[in-house]
């Protein structure tokens, strides 16, 4: 019945001795910690309170707690000042606060509980993209990101760079969902750029995050040298620097095998075999994160010259016709035969 939830309440202690002079003079005046919570309407809660005593008897920090949801008190921060500004991250909700401070003996003073109805006016925090990669099963771009640190995040907006502008292509509901695969991706033919933003429960949208892009891999087959020349674009904007690219090959649809590690954006794979099919992927790495390129494939139809050919005969059929017969190697894929004639033997 002290009324400490609506006002600051003061106390003194006096010592009585018997026999003796009776009541002593009060040494200190103490009071309850009275907390006042104000809603300025800008998406913050402004808290202020008083000390327990003057002079102040504790060097501890004031600890700020917020109740959300009901009966669930969450630590929000600490300060040695008599005020604190808490950023609201829930939408259109009544929030209660309380303050606690401990002295050197371990005793804790707790304030009254005060609160107000708040609306989140601040955009949520933009999460970082972990990686943008290509699913080698269907060549669709897949975006993965870290969960937003904003407690009231309700979804993620995926943006793709199209025709000179950033276009929202999807909204992924839920704070804990941290990946998306684009079913309209054309990552098998071009490098695609993506970025994300966060949506909260008050429909505030965060700024768009850092750009990441897929790796587009192309391969040129050299028939004469029986080799594949691979080229790809750089992966950008990891927080840790990129260290290398790994090249993998699948021969005749077998599992992918490691071929080489490169720090540049090209590689030549030599020693290909006639008739085999070859598929390649490149995987970028910074030591902890990876991004896989599209899959590029071709059949190694390597041209080989005929091993033999010789004339069998040339005979006159009549004055207007000569029959020419030759033996040729049937194994190569011959495009044409050239028959050459000379009237002078040269």
What would you say this structure looks like, in words?
There is one protein chain. The chain has no helices and 29 strands. With 346 residues, it is an all-beta fold. The strands form nine sheets. Strands 7, 8, 10, 11 and 12 form a five-stranded antiparallel β-sheet that branches. Strand 20 (217-222) and strand 21 form a beta hairpin. The chain is rod-shaped, with a radius of gyration of 39 Å. The N and C termini lie far apart (128 Å). The mean pLDDT is 91.
Query: Runs with pLDDT <50, length 5+?
Result: none
Structural class by sheet pairing and helices: mainly beta
The outline comes out as rod-shaped
The amount of beta strand, in percent, is over 45%
| Helical percentage | under 10%
> Strand tally, please?
29
Q: Any idea what the radius of gyration is?
A: 39 Å
Overall pLDDT confidence: 91
Count of helix runs: 0
**CA(first)-CA(last) distance:** 128 Å
What does the largest sheet look like? 5 strands, antiparallel
What series of H and E elements makes up the topology? Answer: EEEEEEEEEEEEEEEEEEEEEEEEEEEEE
